[in-house]
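This entry is listed below:
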Amino acid sequence: MPIINIQLIEGRDAEQIESLIAEVTETVVRNLQVRPEQVRVLVTEIPATHWGVGGKSKRSLEKES
């Protein structure tokens, strides 16, 4: 059973997440020759304040630009 874990900075709408899950599942089915019901996709949305880049939070970098 393939388990795909995707971490994203929060901010996408529900339709985008649904589409991502569907397309990732299709790709795994095609490449690993498994049934769709065997695929698990976990999407974790992380606040920009909890995502660090170069020693700064993503949120603080957005404010700088």
About this structure: The radius of gyration is 15 Å.
